[in-house]
Amino acid sequence: MDFEPPFLKIYNTLLEKNLGDNSENDLYSKVEGSEELPLIDLEKLNLEDPKREECMKEISEAASKWGFFQIINHGISNEILNKMISEQKKLFYQPFVNKLSAETVFNLSPKTYRWGNPCATNLRQLSWSEAFHFALTDIPNMDQHITLRSSLEDFATRMDTLAENLVEILALKVNMKSNHFQENYLPKSSFIRLNRYPPCPISSEVFGLLAHCDTSFLTILYQDSVGGLQLMKDGKWVDVKPNPSALVVNIGDLFQALSNDVYKSIKHRVVAAEEVERFSTAFFYCPFNDAVIQSENKPAVYKKFTLREYRQQTLNDVKETGDKVGLSRFVL
Ligand SMILES: C=C1C[C@]23C[C@@]1(O)CC[C@H]2[C@@]12CC[C@H](O)[C@@](C)(C(=O)O1)[C@H]2[C@@H]3C(=O)O
Ligand SMILES: O=C(O)CCC(=O)C(=O)O
Ligand SMILES: [Fe+2]
C-alpha cells in the first residue's frame, strides 16, 4: 500500500544485527500489573461540595500517585472525537511520498509529519508508528484543508478548555494561585499529535512508540478500541485498557518540575499490534516557548528552565542517543 512508511526497509540493518539477540528480544517480558488506573467522573465537578471537592481530590491524588488517570463525562462529544479520527484517517491514507513532502504537497508547516525514529541506535528505540503535529496557532491558516481544519479546531477548542480546568484544579491542590496558568503562560504553544500505528509484522521485536515522558504540563489522549498503551507503575508496565467513553490524562515533565515532583510525569509506551492498525489523538497542553518553569517550593528539585531550553535539550538528546533523556537533565 503506497501510504505505508517503509519501516522494514529502513530498520533492516538494526534488525539484522539484533534479531535473535535475547537481550534485545525480551522487549515485553515485564508486562502486567494488576492495579486499576483511576477512572474519574468529571460530572461530580458540577455538583455541590463535598462531591465537587472530592472529585478535585481524586484528580490531584491520581496525578501524584499515578501521573495518569482516565476521565468520563468530560464534556467532549463523540461527534467531535469521531470527526477527528475520520479526518485523521484520510490524512494518513495519503501516499507516503506526499506525507514525506507534507510541507510542499499539503502546504503544511515544516516537521508536521514524522515517522519511526530516525535516530534509533538499537531495537528498543525503534518505533513502528507515524504522526502529524499541529501547533494550535497554525490551525487557523490551514486554508487548503477545510474539513481537517474544522475537526482540529473543534477538537483543540474543547481539549484546551478541559486541560485548563484540570491544570487549575491541580494548581490549587499544590497551593499555587488559582489563575497561575492564565497569568504566567499565555499565549500557549499547545499542539495536537495525530498518531497512527500500522500493523507490525515483527511486533514482538519493536514498539509502536518507545517509552517516553511527555514534554507538556498535561496531555489528554483519545485512543481507539485497539489497545497497546502501557504505563510504568512501581517498576511494572500496566495496560491502559481502552474505554470508549473515557479520555486518558497524563502529567507531563513541565508540571512535574513546576510542582517540585508532587505530580509525576510517567513513562509510557505503545506496544505494536501484528494484525490491526491503531489510531490515537493527543493534545499537549504547553505554555509559550519562553515561559520559565520554576517551582516556588523549597528546596527546589530542578533548576529553572524555559520550555525552549527543554525542547532544545530533548532535540539534542534524541539526535545523539536516539532517546529523550528528559527532566533528569535539569536536576539541581
Ligand atoms: C524519539 C522520540 C521523539 C519524542 C521523544 C522520543 O524519545 C519518544 C517519543 C517522542 C515524543 C512523543 C510526545 C511528544 O510529541 C514529544 C515532543 C515528546 O516529548 O516525546 C515527542 C518527542 C519528539 O518528537 O522529539
Ligand atoms: O498512542 C498512544 O496511546 C500514546 C501516544 C503518546 O504517548 C504520545 O503521542 O505522546
Ligand atoms: Fe506520550
From TrEMBL:
InterPro entries per record: DIOX_N, IPNS-like_FE2OG_OXY, IPNS-like_sf, Iron_ascorbate_oxido_reductase, Oxoglu/Fe-dep_dioxygenase_dom
GO MF, any single term: metal ion binding
SUPFAM superfamilies for the chain: Clavaminate synthase-like (SSF51197)
Domain of life: Eukaryota
Alphabetically ordered keywords of this record: Iron, Metal-binding, Oxidoreductase
Gene3D superfamilies, alphabetized: B-lactam Antibiotic, Isopenicillin N Synthase, Chain
Pfam families on file: 2OG-FeII_Oxy, DIOX_N
Domain Fe2OG dioxygenase residues, every copy: 188-287
Similarity field: Belongs to the iron/ascorbate-dependent oxidoreductase family.
Protein name in UniProt: Gibberellin 2-beta-dioxygenase
Organism: Medicago truncatula (Barrel medic)
Lineage, top ranks: Eukaryota, Viridiplantae, Streptophyta, Embryophyta, Tracheophyta
